[in-house]
Amino acid sequence: MKKALLLFFLTGFLSAAHAQIRIDTSAYVKDNKQLYAVVVSQNDKVVFSQYFNGKTDTTLYNNQSLTKSVMSLLMGIAIDKGYISSVDEKIVKYFPQLSEDTDKRKQTITIRQIMNQASGLWHEDVRNMRQYLTLQDPTSYVLKQPLVSEPGKVFYYSNAGTHLLSAILTKATGMTTLEFAEKYLFGPLGIQHVHWNKMLDGYYDGCGLYSVEMPTADMNKIGSLLLHKGRYNGKPVVPKKWIAELLNPAIFYHTPWGFDGSTYALCFYHYNDGTPITFGLGWGGQFLFVIPAKKAVISVNESIDNATAIKTSNLFLEKIFPMIYQQLK
User: Fold this and answer.
1) Under DSSP, is residue 45 helix (H, G, I), strand (E, B) or coil?
2) CATH of the domain at 293
3) Is the pTM of this model over 0.85?
């Protein structure tokens, strides 16, 4: 009898927890053909999980530039384990060909600057994206191109530059990026279903042009690490020192997208309108919001259709996110 009452109580509690967030009646949601998945966790419990437009909880979603945020955690783990000395290590160590480049400024570029989108390295755009993706050696290509700005001075978003993180991780550890992730990040989090594409240079995509794909709930687990000083189920996964730096970066840059007034550092965005929010952002509305004050993580996947990508992303930020946030007690 006591067990039955306990089960009844727990079932009622969980139902109430799931019911506390309601967004499905909003026109911004029910008429939204671009929205695929929203998972919200608070106090280490999933309080909302809903899938739209034929998607399910087992779908592997194209996370686009959330790949960068995953890479950030992997870099922190690699530094902690001694594979990489520091985020301020110069990349010439891994790409010795830079020693022979006529522009000696390239020898000063650091891992931090790449992760801050301030390396000054060439970047692809809509005009040359397809060409970049067909390159047999995109890593060498970006290193050979003229710098677009002084390293460390200007926020200049470069997917091509960020892909170098995957090459650095592979060179430093002797493992592929996926092998390293499975051993030190995905494995400890119980993430079993992942698809990660390689660029033509043989390195797993480090920037999100091809993307790391996984269920939305698994991306939510990754976000939870930022709430718990890098721990999952009480066990350390990412060093707490790295998590502290991600949440409060010493060097950051203002960005033209995300919430109005957002900043960027170490492959994460930051926004503070009274309550600090750290978030990852991928093309088309792929989001990972971490809200420490609410002990909440919100993971989102949407369509990556180029024709609607910017509109879709802005709609979530401006209309749907506020509905969810207001219901987080």
Assistant:
1) strand
2) 3.40.710.10
3) yes
